[in-house]
Design goal:
There is one protein chain. It is built from nine helices and seven strands; from the N terminus they run E-H-E-H-E-H-E-H-E-H-H-E-H-H-H-E. It is α/β, with parallel strands linked by helices. It has a seven-stranded parallel β-sheet with strand order 3-2-1-4-5-6-7, with helices on both faces. Helix 2 links the parallel strand 2 and strand 3. The chain is globular.
Length: about 250
């Protein structure tokens, strides 16, 4: 049975990815910092409490694996919503640590396992913010942009071993984390939550948010043999962003 590990896999996009790989017949491993969410995972999943940005935690998780077919480096936090001059350094570091360093650590420990098998797929969850930048979200955009550079390098380094690396860039994803972003952005811009929501939607050709399952479906494809020669790619799942910061 093929094996997949998803960081921050107990809720949100990560949970949808885990469910997708489970349905595709993979043995599922998830890590998360949320013990309550982990407890709600199906019994047949391997659910491990771990901080994606803590090397000791990640080393301990990967030490339990004797092989890995797919890594979904999905852990991330939204970070602060503020003008760059108002962002505290500690908030910057926390955002970059979880998003970018978390992806690095997962890849660092997945790569040796995949090299042994001379096959594997690494999928990093970046963001449309990593393609366009985004005002008032400097730490998040910088981290997500950096994840694309990390992915491109992984594709180059690991390609000769038959290992692929790709990045998914979700647009605005329905769910609790996005609701927090909408609330903070509304406060920062002096707008209502619904005005900010409509602004995100109208900035896409399809005039809509995406759902976690849309991201999961792409991850499962990238982890499958159907994508055996897809590597080094940045794939937006966003309804096609026309304007990352529309004014409504």
């Amino acid at each position: 049975m093929k094996r997949c590990l998803i960081t921050a896999g107990a809720s949100g996009i990560g949970r949808a990815m885990a469910e997708g790989f489970d349905a595709a017949g993979f043995e599922v491993w998830v890590t998360d910092v949320d013990a309550t969410a982990l407890a709600a995972c199906p019994d047949h999943w391997h659910a491990e409490r771990a901080n994606a940005a803590d090397e000791a935690d990640m080393r301990a998780v990967f030490a339990q694996l004797d092989g890995l077919d797919v890594l979904c480096a999905n852990a991330g936090i939204a970070g602060p919503t503020a003008l760059v001059e108002d962002v505290a350094l500690d908030d910057w570091r926390a955002c970059v640590s979880v998003n970018l360093e978390g992806a690095f650590l997962a890849a660092k420990y997945a790569a040796p396992l995949m090299k042994v098998a001379r096959s594997g797929s690494i999928v990093v969850t970046s963001s449309t913010a990593g393609l366009y930048g985004y005002p008032n979200r400097a730490p998040y955009a910088a981290a997500k942009w950096g994840m694309i550079g990390l992915m491109k390098t992984l594709a180059m380094e690991l390609g000769p071993f038959g290992i692929r690396a790709n990045a998914i860039c979700p647009g605005a994803v329905e769910g609790p984390r996005m609701e927090g972003v909408l609330a903070r952005e509304a406060a920062a811009k002096g707008m209502t939550r619904d005005q900010v929501y409509d602004g995100y939607a109208v900035g896409t050709s399809m005039r809509s948010f995406v759902e976690a399952r849309d991201i999961a479906n792409m991850a499962v494809f990238l982890g499958s043999d159907a994508a055996r020669l897809v590597s080094g790619q940045v794939i937006a799942v966003d309804g096609h962003t026309e304007n990352p910061d529309p004014k409504v």
